[in-house]
Design goal:
With 451 residues, this protein is an alpha/beta fold. 55% of the residues lie in helices and 7% in strands. The protein has 5 domains: 66 residues, no CATH class; 61 residues, no CATH class; 111 residues, Four Helix Bundle (Hemerythrin (Met), subunit A) (Up-down Bundle); 48 residues, Arc Repressor Mutant, subunit A; 70 residues, Arc Repressor Mutant, subunit A, CATH 1.10.10.10. It is built from 20 helices and 7 strands. Helix 10 packs across helix 11, helix 14 crosses helix 15 and helix 17 packs across helix 19.
Amino acid sequence: MLKKTKLKINPKSKVKKTKISNPVKKIKIKPIASKKVVKKKKLRSKFKIKKAEGTKQAVKKRKTIKKKTVKTNFKKQKEKKRKTKIKIRKPAQEEIDKLLYKVKNRGFITEQEIFYVFPYIEYYIDSLEDFLERIEILGIKIIDNSGGILRNDFEKKKIFSEIRADSGKKSFDLGIISTDSIQMYLREIGKVPLLSKEEEIELSKRKEKGDTAAEMKLLQANLRLVVSIAKKFTGRRLSLLDLVQEGNIGLFRAVQKFEYRKGYKFSTYATWWIRQAITRSLADQSRTIRIPVHMVENINRFKQAQRQLIQTLGREPLPEEIAAEMGESLEKVRHIIKISQDTISLEISVGDDDKDSTLENFIEDIKTVAPDRAAGLQLLKKYVVNVIKNLSPREKKILEMRFGLVDGVTHTLEEVGQEFNVTRERIRQIEAKSLEKIRDIEGIEKLKDYL
């Protein structure tokens, strides 16, 4: 709480120091503004003092203005500081320009490269739209993960017009799918008619007003779009129903984030959300050993560069050539090659004729001790027991603890001294004396063969 300060300004005298007294602040100044008055005004703005609705009393040479101090809301300031700490990485313009220069020469761009530059499309959708417009002007094709070419706007409009023409039918044919549950799901979503652009705008306006029914209708009318996109990602260790479910999550996010005022259609906007949700789910769930999403993007970039170099060179490229194409270091490329390997079951059969032979039978178990080494260890243990059996029980125990002859764990002089309640120096003397005795024992030469 800021207390009232009383400031008196005399143009002939210097500025006096402020005194904290009552919760009312009086500032006495001359009607004619001077440099010192301007300084006091700056001082008032620093303390965030607002004018009150109080009275103003005019005096011949000076006037008194009553003011109230305003409490600073520290909670809001803390919340602002917290918000500034949590910042989403904005797409760097250097990365965008570098990617445009790269794809301009080869004539195509992959979706993974777009997602790599724009990892948070929900926060920077305008930047993504500008980027896509620049790609369209340059005539660059967008290639999806499955190897097919993403259709342009004209082909998309043609496909959606055909779907809209068939929307009156009872079922929606998405190809021959043998699973009964998938067919039932397709029949259910085929009953919902597609929406025109005017209907999408109307539903979006109702959604902004809090109409959940309009939001649900917009969601259900675009479920078949999720299925058509999910079919392109089949064959990647996730079933079609799982892909559709992940795509529906992306569609739900698209419904929540869609803004009809931008001018584009909902299907164009939702396609990116659906693809992002499916690619993230494939990165998280398709492998037995999970790989982080950013490493999956690096693997896709690596495979794309590898295919490009194979077409250019006519042979398998070297890791150095791939590193130069990707603009990464050789160590990182080798790390990508290592983690991109698929897992194989040890129970897989080897060969066509012998079904009993599995891969497990041809892999060496490193933890298993070889028979010759096991026999040698048994003989060594027998020789050591014969050597130390002539020592006293105390000396024998000290050597066993110091060299780990029983449990394989060596102990320090301090630990052995605590066991026998003597100093570490005494343990060292007993150890040296015991080793001297062992050197004079017969048969000690046999132990030299194991050194």
